[in-house]
């Protein structure tokens, strides 16, 4: 499996299926891909904020991909002409023989600003993905929550966790260290930082702290465009 960081919270995961997470590319100053170069099977959208929903509709239509998200966001995508599969938090679905997706809680907001109006799109979410024998957890935008221990970490053997560390809108590095302890993944990829000055964080320092305090875990602070292969 290849996990390519496209900048901010956008990832392209290539395995038996190709998954695109939170494809904020066009207005993303650090984007490492162009929307129409991507051909995902599924686009997993954690919430409707523009730095996550991004190019989801355009890519879904161009690539004939299916958007996976919470019910309200998925129905909105369908109204706008994209294929979508509505789910909700706690629900799991099998999308292929070797691909299941479960929606997890995220403590955040979920609206899309359209024509100056705020369109409510349900709860924000995270994703637990099992593909090709590996378990990925993509946290979305969230605060540190005890679900990361009791519901997500304790009940799943997570191989790779993608978690925000940018602070201000989500948990910062301090809380993310605790999140990693609770989630107990083998590998951590920090996200949602250094896209804008407001989200400036030191990914290397975060990695060093985890690897010192929580031996056995590996942290990869990928730069936009870098790929982790496992
Ligand atoms: Ni957000
Ligand atoms: Mn965000």
Describe the structure.
- The protein has six helices and 16 strands.
- The protein is α/β, with parallel strands linked by helices.
- The chain has a single domain, classed as Metallo-beta-lactamase, Chain A (4-Layer Sandwich).
- The N and C termini lie close together (5 Å).
- Manganese (II) ion binds next to α1.
Distance between the termini: 5 Å
Oligomer: single chain
Count of DSSP-assigned helices: 6
Question: Percent range for helical residues?
Answer: 10-25%
The beta-strand count equals: 16
CATH-assigned fold name: Metallo-beta-lactamase, Chain A
Binned strand content: 25-35%
In this structure, how is the largest beta sheet organized? Answer: 7 strands, mixed
Please indicate the count of domains: 1
Shape: globular
Supply the helix-strand structural class.
alpha/beta
* Average pLDDT rating: 98
Features of the shown structure:
single chain; 230 residues; alpha/beta; Metallo-beta-lactamase, Chain A; seven-stranded mixed sheet; 16 strands; globular; binds nickel (II) ion; binds manganese (II) ion
Brief description of this entry?
The protein is of the alpha/beta class. The chain contains six helices and 16 strands. The N and C termini lie close together (5 Å).
Indicate the topology.
Layout: E1 2-7, E2 10-14, E3 18-21, E4 42-44, H1 50-53, H2 56-63, E5 66-70, H3 71-79, E6 83-87, E7 92-96, E8 99-105, E9 111-114, E10 117-120, E11 125-131, E12 134-138, H4 147-153, E13 160-164, H5 173-183, E14 187-191, H6 203-213, E15 218-219, E16 227-229
Parallel strand pairs: 3-4, 4-5, 5-6, 12-13, 13-14, 14-15
Antiparallel strand pairs: 1-2, 1-16, 2-3, 7-8, 8-11, 9-10, 11-12
Helix pairs in contact: 4-5
The structure holds nickel (II) ion (NI) and manganese (II) ion (MN).
């Amino acid at each position: 499996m290849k996990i390519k960081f496209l900048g901010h919270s956008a990832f392209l995961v290539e395995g038996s299926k190709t998954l695109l997470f939170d494809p904020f590319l066009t207005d993303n100053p650090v984007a490492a891909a162009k929307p129409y170069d991507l051909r995902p099977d599924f686009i997993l959208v954690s919430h409707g904020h523009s730095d996550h929903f991004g190019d989801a509709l355009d890519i879904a239509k161009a690539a004939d991909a299916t958007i996976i998200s919470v019910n309200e966001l998925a129905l909105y995508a369908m109204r706008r002409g994209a294929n979508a599969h509505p789910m909700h938090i706690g629900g799991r679905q099998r999308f292929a023989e070797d691909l299941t997706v479960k929606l997890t809680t995220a403590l955040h907001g979920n609206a899309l600003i359209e024509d100056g109006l705020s369109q409510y799109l349900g709860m924000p979410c995270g994703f637990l993905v099992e593909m090709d024998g590996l378990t990925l957890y993509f946290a979305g935008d969230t605060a540190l929550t005890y679900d990361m221990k009791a519901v997500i970490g304790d009940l799943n053997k997570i191989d790779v966790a993608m978690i925000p560390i940018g602070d201000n809108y989500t948990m910062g590095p301090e809380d993310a260290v605790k999140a990693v302890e609770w989630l107990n993944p083998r590998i951590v990829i920090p996200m949602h930082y250094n896209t804008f000055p407001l989200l400036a964080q030191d990914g290397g320092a975060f990695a060093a702290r985890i690897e010192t305090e929580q031996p056995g875990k590996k942290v990869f602070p990928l730069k936009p465009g870098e790929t982790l292969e496992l």
